[in-house]
Design brief:
Layout (H helix, E strand, L loop, with lengths): L5 E6 L3 H12 L4 E7 L2 H11 L3 E5 L7 H8 L7 E6 L5 H9 L3 E4 L4 H12 L7 H9 L11 H11 L4 H8 L3 H15 L4 H11 L3
Parallel strand pairs: 1-2, 1-3, 3-4, 4-5
Helix pairs in contact: 2-3, 3-4, 7-9, 7-10, 8-9, 9-10
């Protein structure tokens, strides 16, 4: 394993899919995948110890669901990105998982190249999701009198909710990458969160825009 490899873990109950994903990822340069689990129950404690960069999590697992699994893991894995695996695009459960702390989602039949690019994307600040889901998140934002964010911070947050990475936000808003990071740091502080997914989730709950 190279120190710069993206460390990926998988939680998927279907043996064939789990083994295929592991093979694709672990055999690709720049990625390491040595930790795979068939359910959340067996994954919870090891993942807290391993602290992988990315977790591919089946959204509908037997026992503890993928959504509940994220709720249990995210508080201790703030720097880990969770990508949900689903068989249906734009499912209501996908939206719920994003609100729970997932960074994005992929269909289980996603081509290998797209899968690897999506993993890289989340580590660069992006969120792989369909336009329909992104639109649903943005629409969920409603004006609030008690909004603590500045107009520019709101613009940055809206773009985060759309799944844009830092570079894209910088280009769209004509500001530097360092300025984007400064705005995001202020957003985290004002919303009392420490991750992009939590910021979007909190903003939705508080109806901020």
């Amino acid at each position: 394993m190279n120190e710069k490899d993206i460390i990926v873990a998988i939680v998927e109950d279907e043996d064939e899919i789990r083994e295929l994903l592991e093979a694709i990822i672990d055999r690709s340069p720049g990625f390491t995948c040595k930790h795979v689990f068939k359910d959340c129950e067996s994954a919870l404690n090891p993942l807290k110890s391993i602290k992988p960069d990315v977790v591919l999590m089946d959204i509908q697992l037997p026992g503890i669901s993928g959504i509940e699994g994220i709720k249990l893991l995210k508080p201790e894995l703030n720097d880990t990105d969770f990508i949900m695996l689903t068989i249906r695009d734009e499912d209501e459960m996908v939206f719920e998982s994003l609100c729970a702390g997932a960074t994005g989602y992929l269909l289980k039949d996603t081509p290998p190249v797209r899968l690897l690019n999506a993993i890289k994307e989340v580590r660069e600040g992006g969120s792989p999701m369909s336009p329909g889901i992104a639109r649903k998140i943005v629409i969920s934002f409603q004006p609030s009198r008690s909004n603590p964010l500045t107009e520019r911070e709101q613009e940055v947050l809206e773009n985060l909710a759309k799944g844009e990475n830092y570079t894209t936000i910088s280009e769209k808003l004509f500001i530097s990458g360092n300025t984007v990071r400064a705005h995001i740091k202020n957003i985290y502080r004002k919303l009392e969160v420490n991750s992009r997914a939590a910021a979007v989730n909190t903003a939705i709950k508080q109806k901020l825009i």
